[in-house]
Amino acid sequence: MNRITRWLGIVLLLFAPGPLLLGESVKSLPAPTGYVSDFAGVLSPSTKQDMEMLCTQVDRQAHAQIAVVTIKTLDGDQSIEEFATELEDKWGVGNKDDRGVLMILVMTPRKGRIEVGYGLEGILNDAKVGDIGRSMVPAANRGDYDTAVPLGVRQIAAVIAKDAGVTLTLPTHQYHRQAVSDEPVQLSLTQIVIGGGIVLLLLFFLVRTGNVGLIFFLLGNLMGGGSRGGYSGGGRDRDDGGRGGFGGFGGGRSGGGGADF
Fold first, then answer.
1. Around 190, how many Cα atoms within 13 Å sit in the side-chain half-sphere?
2. What is the mean pLDDT, run by run of 10 residues, along the chain of 261 residues?
3. pTM
4. Would you call 137 exposed, middle or buried from its count of C-beta atoms within 10 A (0-12, 13-18, 19+)?
5. 218: left (phi over 0), alpha (psi -120 to 50) or beta
6. Which of 16, 68, 71, 63 is nearest to 39 (CA)?
7. Rounded CA gap, 116 and 121, in Å?
């Protein structure tokens, strides 16, 4: 890559109007610090805390583990089933009896999967988790993961608790989507002129250097950069408070069953 192309790449990253989506790979994910790993930043702190408390009860009382993972997008052409299998192998969701459930939600394009370990396959078969996943779809399609995630986790926890003969204290928090302003962003004339000038300058140099692919990339980013504006980044919570004694996953194996939604 010559100097001009390298400079253009830096400018593009700085001034492109929408964030660039880089695919998540299992290798790039850090070790979990709780039952809920909100890498996409779509859950509010209260939702995370409530789900951590519920998953802790399932772990301690019913001896099963539920892991929830949200990511922005998948890396390359990897399927969500392949991602789930690889992540399950890496994290070992479940205990020595493979009583684990892994729920994965992808933001762009929206998709989800519930993967079930062999030890829970008898009570959470493919049809059952498929129904649970589909019940989450309406809220997920609205970008309301504060409703979708608790809805799915509570159903899974209830099935596990009933089978184990234990009673769980379900969170009473009322989940709702965090308000996002619908008002258009106001730009000054100076900002519009400067922004337009930068775009035209980039296109001019891209044409001169023959980087046609990068031109389409830039135009696509300009046209679709705001598509994820429905998600509120303010809900992201990196505080591990309330995770309720999470001590890591116990070594479950990939396999069992599962369903996409």
1. 0
2. 50 45 79 96 97 97 97 91 93 92 97 96 97 98 98 98 94 50 52 69 65 53 41 37 64 81 95
3. 0.67
4. middle
5. alpha
6. 71
7. 6
